[in-house]
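Quick start: what a row looks like.
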Amino acid sequence: MNAFFRLSIAGATLALAGCAAVVGDVRPFAPMAAPPAAIVAPAAPASEGSIYASRSLRLFEDNKARDVGDLVTIVLVENTSARAQANTSVSKESGIDMAAPTIAGVPITYKGNPILEASVEGSRDFQGAGNSTQSNRLSGSVTATVVQNLGNGNLLVRGQKQLRLNQGDELIQVQGIVRTADIGPDNRISSDRVGDAQIVYGGRGTLARSNAMGWLGRFFNSAVYPY
């Protein structure tokens, strides 16, 4: 009965570890809603005079994105690297010697050997080492939509790009805050100038799952595994 109970607990633990998440699929930071509609001011009635006809020439206005619904292209130039290393070593040794007691100066022996003499020794040793290196590089471009004008020269932008390939889908999501002063004349801005940037890149489908660890391997590499 005890053996059956242990097997049941182990099976339930494996099932929970295997079904914790769909491995290999990218997890977007938020569902992308439809972009808000641009606010268009009503146009003034045009004057159709014979000498002067009013038209919007916009001689002193550029085409930079600044209003809700405008488009801005974010050029991805992400290149990050990180490295961490840790080493720990602990050791301790101890010993206790107890000499054989004597009675009136005569040691207590049995067949010529001291019987109450004792010696205790102990030692502990621990060594641990860890090394982690990670580097990421992402290049490309995503055209985002202005979803909010913050009123201080900053714009909240959000955009995504989905590519449906032969064996799966690729997804890129970008959102953050940009300054209108940093936007180029061609409505392009580098991703390293995006404040509070959130960038997600990944895939769904066969190719993404083929690079993921199986449920049994995840169990042996999880905190549930005691060794």
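That is the whole record. Strands lie at 71-98, 102-103, 106-107, 109-110, 113-114, 118-149, 154-165, 168-179, 188-190, 195-205. The two ends are 25 Å apart (CA to CA).
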